Amino acid sequence: MIKAMRTAASGMAAQQLNVDTISNNLANVNSTGYKKSKVEFQDVLYQTLRGSGAESAAGTSTPVGLDVGYGVKPAATQRSFTQGTLQASGNPLDLSIDGEGFFQVLLPDGEVAYTRDGAFKLSADGQIVTSDGMFVQPGITIPADAELIMVSNDGLIAVRVPGDAEAQEIGQIELAKFVNAAGLEAIGHNLFIETPASGVPILGNPTLEGFGRINQGYLEMSNVEIVEEMVNMIIAQRAYEINSKAIQTSEQMTEIANNLKR
Description:
Blueprint: H1 2-27, E1 37-43, E2 46-50, E3 66-69, E4 72-79, E5 86-88, E6 95-98, E7 103-106, E8 112-115, E9 121-122, E10 128-129, E11 136-137, E12 148-151, E13 156-160, E14 168-172, E15 175-177, E16 185-188, E17 191-193, E18 202-204, E19 213-216, E20 218-220, H2 226-258
Antiparallel strand pairs: 1-4, 2-3, 5-20, 6-19, 7-8, 7-11, 9-10, 12-13, 13-14, 15-18, 16-17
Helix pairs in contact: 1-2
């Protein structure tokens, strides 16, 4: 009976982690460029009471074995990098990526991070930065007297200043992509960093194959689907309840066994 309790308890712990992940997805439904996560589970060790193909008392070979499992464990948190909905903002520094690429951001410690959040701003000296003030890489400075900022689909940035009829090209947005984007480590603030699992970043300009194109005046919203997450939460809740019921049933069976002599 104790084995059944521990097995069911592992199921309850697994479903608690599942609900925690779903809750984080729902909490970030309005986070720009957020990518939803999903918990993947695996069964754990088995106690083999009789192996497959073992010789039976009648001298024949048993076609199947006899074993019992010890529950479930979380195996991974898979992040989905499917495209989020593009929402028009009208802000010339709001940029979205329609494709697989990432913007590059310089962290305070000098490391480069990667993001899908293109809600950029201007710093006091005219450099393009994130909402947290981190510089977009490669660094691009907008002239103080710029009247119009234009960003093409291939990431070319141009501005128009007073007295000039033609726009001036001042920089180029460079994107990064990864062989295994799901292997990136999320560090908060809509940022990811490279890991051995993700592989090294592959750099290139927008519109090149696999990098995606830039859309000026649009933001990529979270790819969380509220209805899907709510259904997943109901399923996780029911699984949690069923495992708790298994613990109650095991406890009742243990109580019956203890009272047999009465």
